Fold this sequence. Notes:
binds zinc ion, 4 helices, 80 residues
Amino acid sequence: MKESCEHAAECLKKLRLILDGEVSEDEQQEFLKKIESCLPCFRFYNLELAIKDSLVKAVPSKKVPQQLIDDIKSKINEAV
Ligand SMILES: [Zn+2]
């Protein structure tokens, strides 16, 4: 597994599309296969998944305020 990604910006863009559900199932599977060998992107994907997951759990109705999602997303964007 690589410790760095030479195309991180592209990977992250795609990851966000996947997490937003804007990518077809086939494309998603293909990309996930690709990032399994790409450690930083794989980590980032799992981090995003965990955040998404905790948001869902934190709000039983599954209605997460859009503001909260935007806040978290902008924090992630700052961190990258
Ligand atoms: Zn990558």
